[in-house]
Design brief:
- With about 270 residues, the chain is mainly α.
- The chain contains 9 helices and no strands.
- Helix content is about 70%, strand content about 0%.
Length: about 270
């Protein structure tokens, strides 16, 4: 049930975009105070954002060349549209973000390659729908791609079923929801001026000092939102997970876009 097999080329593209994305998110801790990146701390996130757009596009193109056929594209469009429509439901309400449970279940059934593309496309579509286009959008696309891909990388794809599988997905959704929030905090944290708050990024401070500032920033600004997102993801996964997993697997089997049907016998 993997409509997007991870070929060497697509794996290399994913590794490239992941490595660059990791640098884009964590550069405040990787760049020494004397580096040019630290000297232009207010500019660096914008530069990384522009680079991420290109790398995500390269990654999606490489994955599509590995077998994303018309039926898989149709399913990608339906799931991305559904996720984009779910995102505004909880806009402005702490942590009520139902799209995350759909990404977990879709990544689980359809695999990590499809999941990465789905996460990117869903965030892109929802940004256009809600008017949330800005320098943060590539970071959201990449973080959601990782979030959905991680569900596809969970063990026991062929053996684990029923309540055990739903429980694993609920646990993953809970932890990954916090990871997503932390990643997005990293994307916005460097924009704060050092004089604006004691928890803002300081380009001249040592890594331990900035790390302590970042932890305090997360606790002060987003812990409640991240907890709400995690709990909503768990509740929806436990409540709707079994039925939606069956529906997704049934749709995948009927689409039959993994392997073409062939006949070994002679023609009649």
């Amino acid at each position: 049930m993997r409509p997007v097999p991870l070929t060497p080329r697509s794996t290399a593209a994913l590794a490239l975009v992941t490595a660059t994305g990791f640098a884009a998110f964590t550069w405040p801790f990787l760049a020494p105070p004397s580096s040019q990146v630290a000297a232009h701390s207010q500019d660096a996130p914008w530069l990384f954002a522009g680079l991420l757009v290109l790398l995500v596009a390269v990654s999606a193109a490489a994955i599509s060349e590995s077998g994303l056929g018309p039926k898989a594209v149709a399913m990608l469009g339906v799931l991305a549209a559904t996720g984009a429509a779910l995102r505004p439901i909880g806009a402005g309400t702490a942590g009520i973000e139902p799209m995350f449970f759909l990404m977990v279940l879709s990544g689980r059934v359809l695999g990590p390659g499809f999941g990465f593309v789905l996460g990117n496309v869903t965030m892109f579509a929802s940004a256009l729908l809600t008017g949330g286009v800005g320098p943060w959008m590539p970071f959201q696309m990449l973080a959601m791609g990782w979030f959905t891909m991680g569900a596809g990388l969970l063990p026991g794809r062929e053996r684990l079923r029923g309540r055990g599988e739903v429980g694993v997905l609920a646990c993953y959704g809970f932890l990954a929801a916090f990871a997503y929030g932390t990643a997005m905090n990293l994307a916005g944290w460097p924009f704060m001026g050092a004089l604006a708050s004691s928890v803002a990024f300081d380009p001249q401070a040592a890594v331990p000092t900035n790390l302590a500032r970042f932890v305090a920033y997360c606790l002060a600004t987003s812990l409640g939102w991240d907890l709400g997102r995690a709990l909503v993801t768990v509740v929806l996964t436990l409540a709707l997970g079994p039925a939606l997993l069956r529906a997704l697997r049934r749709a995948t089997r009927r689409a039959a876009f993994e392997t073409p049907v062939t006949f070994d016998g002679p023609p009649v």
